[in-house]
Amino acid sequence: MKKAIAFISLTAAIVASSQASAVTITLACGAVGQELQLCREGAARWAKKTGNTVKIFESPNLTNDRLGLYQQQLAAKSSDIDVYQLDVVWPGLLSQHFVDLKGKVPTNEINAHFKGIIDANTVNGKLVAIPWFTDAGLLYYRTDLLKKYGFSAAPKTWTEMALMAKKIQDGEQKTNKAFAGYVWQGKNYEGLTCDAMEWLVSFGGGTIVDAKGNITINNAQAAKALDTAASWVKSISPAGVTTYDEEAARGIFQAGNAAFMRNWPYAWALGQGADSKVKGKIGVAPLPSGGSRNAATLGGWQLGVSTYSKNQAAAIDLVRYLAGPAEQKIRAIEGAYNPTLQSLYKDKDVLAKNPFFGSLYNVFTSAVARPSGPTKSKYNQVSQAFSSAVSDVLSGKSKGQAAVTKLATDIARIKGRGW
């Protein structure tokens, strides 16, 4: 990867008496939306409190790129990064490189997080990382435009969404040719795996691989889900949607050029920012059903301490601080990052800034996990095979049934090498 590695020093004034024991910790942060800024500010608060220094390692935006870079660092047993920000689907893939936090983080702190997310971070009894914020896919919509075109509520089904998006798009394009009905993550990367998982489950098409490791993707409902999504391209979604990631979709929606958007909770705070053309005009709802159920893919990020860190005790202290209630509350209020601590969903300050945290609580607690558990170290290969198959359907290279049939064979080949 040619992306330059940016280090940003955050140094607290260190009093003379603590200089001898002060250490420097390098923390890998994401840079999507407000992530980098909030990560930097949280680290600075810990540095000021402890007298230590934190260097921020700016990670690539795309999850796949970030994973590749991390794997290079970890395979080399590099001590350059002490604390890594880990996707919820990575613990099974990277567990051997991280300190077991059981016994090093107090049990009461661990138990304050949602059990399902702690379980996702536990591999063979080892607690690989501590949850930092959780995610689930959401449907964003323009409240003013729904009212303008005679709709009283957000769509409950994908069919309703497509009809509403088309009507609004046709009307708005009379004065704004750039206007789109629906924007989402169609680029061939992990974001597409997340979007497409939601389509599959909402249509009753399974989860690619089930909890027992059985390959379930080859079914008619999964094929129907992919064909339905493909029908949106060049209809209610621009042709370019097959190149969009989260930020591309958010940019279009926030500029006032889309009626609906699929994105993560972080987009809410930015959409309410002073520079947003849709401030005060955004609604948030569960993603529509394909006839089976509403489905949101479980996302979210955790903090893990590298076994190659030369300052593990300080690194663990930083993780505990950043994942603690005070920092999670700040991140929820300032950036709409969903807490992993159950208590914060009843916090009046958090709910005042993010009212949908309360009304859509069940969306977050019942989000659908990607099959990283059963596929273990092969998850990344399975996900790449899946997103590539979906991408072929979206671009018209394949139809849904042909794609899921071939995909089942491809995943069986991956499984044959053991997972």
Low-confidence stretches: 1-6, 11-20
According to CATH, the homologous superfamily of the largest domain is Periplasmic binding protein-like II
| Count of discrete structural domains | 2
- Which oligomerization state do the chains in this entry correspond to? single chain
Rg of Cα set: 22 Å
Q: Could you tell me how far the N terminus lies from the C terminus, measured between alpha carbons in angstroms?
A: 27 Å
Major β-sheet strand ordering? 9-10-8-11
- The helix-and-strand class reads alpha+beta
Number of helices, where a helix is a run of at least 4 consecutive DSSP H or I residues: 19
The CATH architecture term of the largest domain is 3-Layer(aba) Sandwich
User: Could you say which overall geometry the principal axes of the C-alpha atoms support?
Assistant: globular
Number of strands: 12
CATH class value of the largest domain = Alpha Beta
CATH fold call of the largest domain = D-Maltodextrin-Binding Protein, domain 2
Strand content: 5-15%
Q: Helicity level, as a percent range?
A: 40-55%
Overall pLDDT: 94
What does the main sheet amount to?
A: 4 strands, mixed
Pfam families: SBP_bac_1
Family: Belongs to the bacterial solute-binding protein 1 family.
Signal peptide: 1-22
Keywords: Signal, Transport
